[in-house]
């Protein structure tokens, strides 16, 4: 390589050109953060909350889809539909949570773990039903809007309670 080529490459690298390691380093940092958020075991609460948001979103879509189908298609009373949909949503949430969100557990006994997880879900169901009744039954808000409000409140409650009781 000639002195000109060496000088040209050195100048290019010095100003962040095509052979610079800076873009590579920032890509490595982004890859590491993405791996932490998506693939690596979730030890930090922020990572768990990030993942729980997707798990909760998936469970919510299952929940609201069943609620809509039972209420609007099959004409089941909306509070009964909400209870059935919530139970299915809790089951989806449990399976995805133990598989992807929480890597540390307070117990190794699955039955006990699911019982506590479901018990938190039952309290969440009570919150869900109360919020649904209040906004739809008492205030006359459309039941799907009530469900969105309920889902936000129950999401935060469920994460905090499950993290504290099961997944430290």
Task: Tell me about this structure.
The protein is an all-alpha fold and 168 residues long. The protein has six helices and no strands. Helix 3 runs antiparallel to helix 6. It is globular and about 55 Å long. It starts with a helix and ends with a helix.
Brief write-up:
This protein has 168 residues and is mostly helical. The chain has helices at residues 3-14, 22-38, 45-73, 78-101, 110-138, 143-165.
Got a strand count?
A: 0
Taking pLDDT < 50 over at least 5 consecutive residues as the criterion, the unreliable ranges are none
Strand content: under 5%
Distance between the first and last residues' Cα: 59 Å
Could you report the average pLDDT, rounded to the nearest whole number? Answer: 83
What is the H/E order? HHHHHH
Q: How many domains, in number, for the residues?
A: 2
Radius of gyration, rounded?
A: 24 Å
Supply the helix-strand structural class. mainly alpha
How helix-rich are the residues, as a percent range? over 70%
Biggest β-sheet: count, sense, barrel? none
Which outline best applies? Answer: globular
Number of helices: 6
């Amino acid at each position: 390589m000639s002195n000109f080529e060496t000088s040209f490459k050195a100048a290019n690298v010095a100003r962040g050109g095509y052979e610079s390691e800076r873009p590579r380093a920032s890509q490595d940092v982004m890859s590491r953060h993405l791996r932490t958020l998506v693939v690596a075991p979730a030890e930090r609460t922020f990572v768990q909350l990030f993942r729980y948001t997707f798990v909760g979103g998936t469970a919510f879509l299952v929940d609201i889809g069943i609620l809509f189908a039972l209420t609007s298609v099959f004409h089941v009373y909306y509070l009964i539909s909400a209870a059935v949909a919530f139970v299915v949503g809790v089951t989806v949430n449990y399976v995805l949570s133990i598989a992807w969100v929480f890597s540390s557990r307070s117990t190794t006994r699955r039955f006990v773990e699911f019982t506590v997880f479901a018990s938190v879900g039952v309290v969440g169901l009570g919150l869900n039903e109360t919020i649904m009744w209040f906004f739809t039954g008492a205030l006359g808000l459309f039941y799907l809007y009530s469900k969105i409000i309920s889902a936000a409140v129950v999401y935060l409650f469920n994460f905090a309670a499950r993290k504290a009781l099961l997944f430290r």
